[in-house]
Amino acid sequence: MKKYILTFSVAYIIAMLAVLVIESFFEMPSTTSVICLIVGSFSAAARFVKEHQRIPDAAEKKSLVRGCLLASIIISIIATAISIVIFPETLPYLKMAMTQLPIWIWLIAITFTLLIHYLVLALSFGWMAKRFLPKSAT
Predict the structure, then answer these.
(1) Which residues are within 8 A (CB) of 84 and not within 5 positions of it... i.e. 6 or more apart?
(2) pLDDT tens digits along 57-79
């Protein structure tokens, strides 16, 4: 499963960089991060299906979803840290948000974000993986 999680991670990072470049030219909504998640998960699902000529079974799907979810969290934390280093003027806003917003708002936001990530990953390794199957394999 590691190579599929690595495929996800590389595609996710490349998509993040592409979105960053595109956003520097156009104003885009913040939901573009979901696009990066979709690119990464579709890439990993397509590679799995291509190599195994089947969709992941339940245990494999669970492992792939969890591994990719963890990878996306780690990548996002690293990207945020790099962003703060590159744009240190954003740090006071982040500190203000962290100190002035109640913890329950942070918990709701984090839970909602994780839920969206989980759903996208589950759909990618389930329903979308079926679409990557060659017609002769169905």
Answers:
(1) 90, 91, 94
(2) 999 999 999 999 999 999 989 98
